[in-house]
Amino acid sequence: MNREPSWDVYRTFAAVLREGSLSAAARALGLTQPSVARHIEALEQAVGGTLFLRSQRGLSPTDRAIALRPYAETLLATSAALLRTATAGADVIAGTVRLTASEVVAAEHLPPVLTALRRQYRELSIELVASDAIDDLLQRHADIAIRMVAPTQQALLARKLGALKLGLYAHADYLAQHGEPTALADLAHHDLIGVDSIGDLSRAVLTALPGLEHGDFALRVDNALVQLGAIRAGFGIGICQVAVAARDAALIRVLPDAFSFDLPLWVVMHEDLRSSARHRAVFDALVDGLLDGIPQGVAIG
User: Fold this and answer.
1) Which InterPro entries would you find in this protein's record (predicted)?
2) Sign of the CA dihedral 223, 217, 297, 162?
3) pTM of full prediction above 0.90
4) Residue 199 burial (10 A CB sphere; 0-12, 13-18, 19+)
């Protein structure tokens, strides 16, 4: 391997992977396209192989590039964490804190919590990643995470808030047209909304709905906000957080005695951030705000 490339080269490599072309990466980074091309050429010389192949759709990463992707992403996350850590002193509630939360929690529960936080700490800024993927806090992909699974990694400060309750819901207009199911077996005759990809959570949900299979769902989409939007639009019956549905009188819970599902709710932070005033302030605000904001849907554990 040749001389170690500069940090800018790795940043450019990650941008090309993400954007899929030199021109798009250049726009994202604020560079010229020739500069981006030179960075990729420099990295290819350093690693001794081709990283991208040209195609009609843009640039396709080679196996070598795909193997390097997680290391480039770790470099980016570390760089961003370094900058956030350096933006304010340990005793000052100012600077940037990066959060990650599921799509529904981010859209439906966090806005009032973050609004109150902003009003209290004017020098604090928040980066929010709305994703159902579980970011690695040990790699500092985020500073604080709101998770629906118990943390398994060591060196994490975690607070369990209880469980978010889920139920089956439909819009009143849908039920007026199609009728309300009286037993789980009736669901087979309704328009159902569910996930497309089968994972651990979806398997657990299907287990709680005996007699239903993946193909029985009329709308299958992995984005939880799209599922919620479809329920609100009257498409059919889907799973919704009890606390979210309680805010909309048009959403009617069906078969409450036959189906109920609990998602554990955790707020998690790397223990090294315990002594940081701004991270602790955000952590505590999330715990207090979530407990105050969704009492109907949380069973304290």
Assistant:
1) LysR-type_TF_proteobact-type, LysR_HTH_N, LysR_subst-bd, WH-like_DNA-bd_sf, WH_DNA-bd_sf
2) negative
3) no
4) exposed
